UniProtKB/TrEMBL annotation:
<keyword id="KW-0812">Transmembrane</keyword>
<protein>
    <recommendedName>
        <fullName>FecR family protein</fullName>
    </recommendedName>
</protein>
<keyword id="KW-0472">Membrane</keyword>
<dbReference type="GO" id="GO:0016989">
    <property type="term" value="F:sigma factor antagonist activity"/>
</dbReference>
<dbReference type="Pfam" id="PF04773">
    <property type="entry name" value="FecR"/>
</dbReference>
<keyword id="KW-1133">Transmembrane helix</keyword>
<feature type="domain" description="FecR N-terminal">
    <location>
        <begin position="34"/>
        <end position="74"/>
    </location>
</feature>
<dbReference type="Pfam" id="PF16220">
    <property type="entry name" value="DUF4880"/>
</dbReference>
<dbReference type="InterPro" id="IPR012373">
    <property type="entry name" value="Ferrdict_sens_TM"/>
</dbReference>
<dbReference type="InterPro" id="IPR032623">
    <property type="entry name" value="FecR_N"/>
</dbReference>
<dbReference type="InterPro" id="IPR006860">
    <property type="entry name" value="FecR"/>
</dbReference>
<feature type="domain" description="FecR protein">
    <location>
        <begin position="139"/>
        <end position="227"/>
    </location>
</feature>
<feature type="transmembrane region" description="Helical">
    <location>
        <begin position="105"/>
        <end position="124"/>
    </location>
</feature>
C-alpha cells in the first residue's frame, strides 16, 4: 500500500472571494483513515501472508499518524462490542462512546463507514472470486479434450490456449489463442461467455466453434443459438442459429455471414479440417499454427483469394505443397523453416 505524503506550506496566499478553503491536513486524515480501515479489514478477514505482514509493519512505522489511525479503528471496533443490546419491546439504550482517548478529533460515523467500506470491498472480492478456474493448452501434435465440472466440453485445436473461470452466477472462458469447439451444458442460471480478443460470444446451452486469429474472429454454430458481440461500435451484434457462421475482420471493420453444412462445424476435431471459401490470409495463419513455423503471404493480391478444400492438420506441409495447383502461387522455404507465398510470375 503506498504511503501518502501530506504536508502543507506555512504560508498561504489569501483565498479569492467565493472560494471555499479545503485543508490539506483534513484530506490527509481521511486518506490515512481509509488506509487504516483497509488494513484492519484485511486482518479481520484472514491471516496476512508474510509479505502482507511486512508491508503492514512498514505502513505502521512510516508515521505516528498511521499507528494512531489504526488504534482508533481498533478502539471503535472494541467499543461496538460494548454497546448494550436493547430488549425487543423496550426503547433502545446505548451508552455513548467516549472519544477522550483520541489525539485527533474525527467523526465516529466516518470511521465506521470506512471500516464497513473496507470489509465490503473484501467481501466483494471474495464474491467475485471464481469457484473453479483452469488454463488449458493443446500442443502442436495433439488435440486436447476437456470435460468441465458442469458437464460442458471444451476441445482445443492444435496450438490453442483457453482460460476457464466458473463463478456462482456465470461461466467464462477466454480463448487466448487458436480455436476451440464448445459443447455447453444448459444452465439458465449461469450463462456461458467466451471472450476472444475484442469479440464476445454468449450462450446458455449449445454446440459451436470459435476461431481467433491475429486480425479476426470466426464463430460457427452446430446446435442451439449463439449471440456474438464483435466488440466494435461499428459492428452490430449477431445471433446465429445452426449452420450459420460469422467471420469478423477487425482490420477492415467488416463482418461476413455465411451458411455451411453442420458437418463442417469444428470438423478439425477428427484431424481433418474441412473449409469452404476461406481467405488465404486467414488460412496461412492457421497453417502456421499447425506446422509451428510462420507462413507468410507477401503478395497483397493473394491475401483475399479464397479457396475450399480439406487439410490434414497433422501434416500441414502436404497441403502447402499442393497449394500451387489450386492458386497461382510459388512457395519458398526459408532457412528458419518458415514458408513464403508469392504470386506466380
Amino acid at each position: 500500500m503506498p504511503v501518502l505524503c501530506c504536508t502543507a506550506a506555512n504560508r498561504r496566499a489569501p483565498l479569492r472571494p467565493g472560494v471555499r478553503e479545503v485543508r490539506v491536513t483534513d484530506l490527509c486524515t481521511a486518506q490515512i483513515d481509509e488506509q487504516a480501515a483497509v488494513w484492519f479489514s484485511r486482518r479481520q478477514a484472514r491471516a496476512l501472508s508474510a509479505a502482507e505482514q511486512a508491508e503492514f509493519s512498514r505502513w505502521l512505522a512510516a508515521s505516528p499518524e498511521h499507528a494512531q489511525a489504526y488504534a482508533d479503528i481498533q478502539l471503535l471496533w472494541d467499543d461496538c462490542d460494548l454497546l448494550e443490546r436493547p430488549a425487543l419491546a423496550s426503547p433502545a439504550t446505548v451508552r455513548s462512546i467516549t472519544t477522550s482517548r483520541r489525539r485527533r478529533l474525527r467523526s465516529v460515523t466516518a470511521l465506521a463507514a470506512a471500516v464497513l467500506l473496507g470489509v465490503g470491498l473484501l467481501l466483494l472480492q471474495q464474491w467475485q472470486a471464481p469457484v473453479m478456474q483452469l488454463t488449458a493448452s493443446a500442443g502442436l501434435d495433439d488435440i486436447r479434450h476437456i470435460l468441465l465440472e458442469d458437464g460442458s466440453e471444451l476441445t482445443l485445436n492444435l496450438g490453442s490456449t483457453a482460460e476457464v473461470r466458473y463463478y456462482d452466477d456465470r461461466r467464462e472462458v477466454t480463448l487466448v489463442a487458436g480455436e476451440a469447439f464448445f459443447a455447453v451444458a444448459k444452465d439458465a442460471e449461469r450463462p456461458f461467455r467466451i471472450s476472444a480478443g475484442d469479440g464476445q460470444v454468449e450462450v446458455v446451452g449449445t454446440r459451436f466453434n470459435v476461431r481467433r486469429s491475429d486480425t479476426g474472429l470466426a464463430v460457427a454454430v452446430e446446435q442451439g443459438r449463439v449471440k456474438v458481440e464483435p466488440g466494435r461500435p461499428e459492428l452490430a451484434a449477431q445471433e446465429l442459429t445452426p449452420g450459420q457462421r460469422i467471420e469478423i475482420d477487425y482490420a477492415t471493420a467488416t463482418a461476413r455471414s455465411t451458411r455451411l453444412p453442420l458437418a463442417e462445424v469444428g470438423s478439425w476435431r477428427s484431424g481433418l479440417l474441412v473449409f469452404h471459401d476461406r481467405p488465404l490470409a486467414e488460412l496461412a495463419q492457421e497453417l502456421a499454427r499447425y506446422r509451428g513455423q510462420a507462413v507468410r503471404v507477401t503478395d497483397p493480391e493473394l491475401l483475399t483469394r479464397r479457396l475450399s478444400g480439406t487439410l490434414d492438420i497433422h501434416h500441414p506441409d502436404r497441403f502447402l505443397r499442393a497449394l500451387p495447383q489450386l492458386l497461382p502461387v510459388e512457395l519458398t522455404e526459408l532457412a528458419d523453416g518458415s514458408i513464403q507465398l508469392t504470386g506466380r510470375k
